[in-house]
Amino acid sequence: MFGKVSFTEKPQLRQPILIEGLPGIGYVANIVALHLISELKAKKFCEIFSPSFQAFSLISREGGIRYPINELYYGSPNAADKDLIILFGNSQGGDPKGQHHLCNQILDIAENLGCRFVVTIGGLRRDLAPAESKVFCAATDMKTIRAAEEQGAQVMQGQIYGVAGLLLGLAKLRKLTGLCILSETLGLFADVAAARSALQFMCKFLGLNVDYSRLDQAVEINKRILGSFSEPLPPEKRRYPTAI
Amino acid sequence: MFGKVSFTEKPQLRQPILIEGLPGIGYVANIVALHLISELKAKKFCEIFSPSFQAFSLISREGGIRYPINELYYGSPNAADKDLIILFGNSQGGDPKGQHHLCNQILDIAENLGCRFVVTIGGLRRDLAPAESKVFCAATDMKTIRAAEEQGAQVMQGQIYGVAGLLLGLAKLRKLTGLCILSETLGLFADVAAARSALQFMCKFLGLNVDYSRLDQAVEINKRILGSFSEPLPPEKRRYPTAI
Amino acid sequence: MFGKVSFTEKPQLRQPILIEGLPGIGYVANIVALHLISELKAKKFCEIFSPSFQAFSLISREGGIRYPINELYYGSPNAADKDLIILFGNSQGGDPKGQHHLCNQILDIAENLGCRFVVTIGGLRRDLAPAESKVFCAATDMKTIRAAEEQGAQVMQGQIYGVAGLLLGLAKLRKLTGLCILSETLGLFADVAAARSALQFMCKFLGLNVDYSRLDQAVEINKRILGSFSEPLPPEKRRYPTAI
Amino acid sequence: MFGKVSFTEKPQLRQPILIEGLPGIGYVANIVALHLISELKAKKFCEIFSPSFQAFSLISREGGIRYPINELYYGSPNAADKDLIILFGNSQGGDPKGQHHLCNQILDIAENLGCRFVVTIGGLRRDLAPAESKVFCAATDMKTIRAAEEQGAQVMQGQIYGVAGLLLGLAKLRKLTGLCILSETLGLFADVAAARSALQFMCKFLGLNVDYSRLDQAVEINKRILGSFSEPLPPEKRRYPTAI
């Protein structure tokens, strides 16, 4: 019980891309991952339980408690020749060593399924509310950076703390390629507008055909959303605007 | 000496319910557990010593030092068909990993004794003193949430840090059921009024017949109470208002 | 090199008393230990090196660097039938788990040498400079508390963080007896006045015949003292006021 | 993948001196190391990957992500009879235990290559901008301190946190000799002026003939420098002012 990786399935995937969606600044990655899981009717195949997580539990909107967990889903975007592995969860590592341990666990699983490209997502905190959330990027290689710039991203400078930074860094260490997408946000709440910027950019970048009109509706239910993050409903029950 | 679980007895218990009473916001859980131990003349059967605890010692009102410890008691409420396992102590885990370790130790013991239901208790911090401490709840399942709502609790939202959150979350991970009871408090001192709200709610919810009139008297000795938390007198010596 | 307990001697001691003198609030314990080592011409017999220490080095007044270390000395007070084990050093544990590990290492060594009584020393932080530093105490048992009260100490309330608290708590867990001596201090610098109160009280309590006139002189060199803590001169070279 | 020391070469070195250049206050050590690597065309022979590092990644000026890493280079100053081992990197340890682990790893490698002298470098934070950054020092032995004083350094007092302090302390524990060079800085940005003071002092102290005119030019590109720290270009591509 002191840490377990539990598979319900070992899926056969086509050149899968790992998309990181753990909670962080403005919950940008979390919203993007939740929307993708819902839109692609992605299927959960793996759960990670670990003493490396933060020492808390979360509560769903209905009052249901949810232990710290990371989950991996897979899904196939329409008309794409690649599958997605979506990392969703309610906790990052509880301390620096726990972050390293968690990131390496996730990369082990993804590599094992043939993943060679990793996308991490995060919020880029701003003191003033941005008129619209611009997207910044960093990547494992110049080719990916150039491609991101062509899609309108600006180049990020500095340091990226937490799983959005470390997961991509450790991916590079394993000779994987990948991109970090950061979206401007006040970071004070679950920022669906920032998530939309990140999602739109990612879909364009990866050539995904994902409907995000329902994410737009989600802006209004911003304040109600935090609870439901912790306990994602099964895909068949998720309907906007009530479910998210 | 670097961590030990020490049993004085392996009690035979009837469908026992674990009640968490470690120190936290407003010492709500600690007061409730101490009162229950006193009223039920509960018997200590297990002590947990661990390097996962915080790095301090506590002092009783008389100046007696007390190492970090968690203790498990069992007791039988009048006219109930269930026994209680009461977790009392003076320390939570000292860091996130220590919290995970401690919670799993406690659940291992409780499960081993046949426990299938867990109650955690905590304070819900407010900036203004509440007229009376309202009770909020979260639970492992909708049936328990509904039952708590029927008894007057409101549904909690957000995150619950520390053992009150993590213990219930990890209980759910083990397929146990359970309830978290949070009582509003300023959290600046040992808040007996908040503890009374939590205790009254818990007794109603569990169908316990516990006298809490003596807890009412304890309001006046609020400021004197903190020291004696750390060194519980044996039940036969505890008399209100001098003992608590 | 990743942690080592190194003995230069395994002394034969008469019912030795362990006296804790690690750096803490106002450097009270550190000053007391350093003075005792000097006055008793105590002899170092053990060095502890550990990755549990804080991540720093200290600099002596002359610029000499000093790795994190704990040292154990033994000495025989005049006309006493008991020997002293004096714990001196420049670092406590770097995190809660490190504190537990360090305290247990020290108690293992002391018990092994026949120690059954432990004295820990600390500063009790006050916001206003006390006219004179009053001494507060906590102990493992009521007999020791009463004896300390008879010598003029007041009973401490609350919690004692760090090695002064944890070491005594873990000593009690091992069925040792002992006393914690806390002396009021602003805690802003090496407080020799607070150290003198603690030292005078300890000598009276333990029946030690130690000259502390030279500690009095040390008040004037308060500001110069911090550096030399980190690199204790061998006893034969320590002469007040130049050496301390 | 959970921690690795990777050698590309085991160089034969002449009485090598280890020079620490990890990021810290004002990035003083980092700038000095980067300049030395560039000027001496030093060659990387070892990379350290560790879960002890901080949980982040860094981004180069061009947007390239860089995992936490420490690197060891070797180089031969003109007309010197000693080689240098230069420790460069983008992360210190993420917690106290990680710092101890990292420092011991580095010293193991250096000792193995015959190193008997260690130089650590750091910033000494000041609240007001110093007219010029004076150099302070601490050392493992009085002979080294005297030699540093003769070159104009003042003797440091107090404690040195992080790798600049701990590495030298642990070096002393291994009977190595060495010097810590601290340069005054506001510490708010990559302080090339403070780095120049430290570098000039070190070159004089070690008898190194290194051109630091190009470091002077680097003052103007202060603000652009931080990104490129994380991803040092290969020596042949580094040209001032564009490359640093």
Question: How is this structure best summarized?
Answer:
The structure is a homotetramer of 244-residue chains. The first copy, chain A, has 244 residues and is α/β, with parallel strands linked by helices. Chain A is built from seven helices and twelve strands.
Report on this model:
With about 240 residues, chain A is of the alpha/beta class. In chain A, about 30% of the residues lie in helices and about 25% in strands. Chain A has 7 helices and 12 strands. Chain A has helices at about 30-40, 95-110, 140-150, 165-175, 190-205, 215-220, 220-230, and strands spanning about 5, 15-20, 45-50, 55-60, 65, 70-75, 85-90, 115-125, 135-140, 155, 160, 175-185. The longest helix of chain A is centred in the middle third of the chain and has 17 residues, at about 95-110. Chains in contact: A-B, A-D, B-C, C-D. Chains A and D meet through helix 2, strand 9, helix 3, strand 11 and helix 4 of A and strand 4 and strand 5 of D.
Give descriptors for this structure.
32% helix; disordered C terminus; 12 strands; 7 helices; nine-stranded mixed sheet; alpha/beta; 244 residues; homotetramer; two-stranded antiparallel sheet
The chain-level mean pLDDT of chain A equals: 87
Q: Return the string of H and E elements of chain A.
A: EEHEEEEEHEEHEEHEHHH
Compute the number of strand runs of chain A: 12
3D shape of chain A: globular
- Summarize the main sheet of chain A: 9 strands, mixed
Order of strands, widest sheet of chain A: 1-3-6-7-2-8-12-9-10
Number of helices of chain A: 7
Largest binding interface between chains: A-D, 37 and 26 residues
Tell me the fraction of residues in β-strands of chain A, as a range.
Answer: 25-35%
Span between termini of chain A: 31 Å
